[in-house]
Amino acid sequence: MSNSSTAVTTTLDRMQVGESALVFDVSGKDSPKQSHLADISRRLKELGFVRGEEVTILHKGYFGGEPLAVRVGQSTFALRNFEAALIGVTKSGNPA
Questions:
Q1: What is the mean pLDDT of the segment spanning 39-50?
Q2: DSSP strands (E only) in the chain
Q3: pLDDT confidence of 30, banded at 50, 70, 90?
Q4: Separation between Cα atoms, residue 25 and residue 22, nearest integer Å
């Protein structure tokens, strides 16, 4: 029997309202055709979405789940789904 907790890796856009996680990566460099994603990634990092920072989903919009109200540190931001998809997070699972 293992006594350690499990970690689930996902992206911020896939989290549910009320869930919290730790940022592990902000990536906009996967597609060379979309260089503007690198600029968005840089801006997200400047806002505080950096490795190890806790994020919480506060609210999702009614139509299509946009925008997402997200708390990072002591600040709250509204993000579009494609922006939230750039933010990789790790959710800690509870030990069984």
A1: 94
A2: 7-11, 20-26, 54-60, 68-72, 75-79, 87-92
A3: low
A4: 9
Mind listing the domains of the chain with CATH numbers?
A: 7-91 (2.30.30.90)
CB burial of 64-92 (b: ≥16 within 10 Å; e: otherwise) equals eebbbebebeeeebebebebbebbbbbee
Q: Are 25 and 11 in contact (CB under 8 A)?
A: no
Q: How far is CA 68 from its chain centroid?
A: 10
Kindly report whether the global pTM for this prediction surpasses the value 0.85: no
**25, 44 Cβ separation under 8 angstroms:** no
Band of pLDDT at residue 38, cut at 50, 70 and 90:
confident
pLDDT at 4: 52
**Rounded CA separation 68/32 (Å):** 26
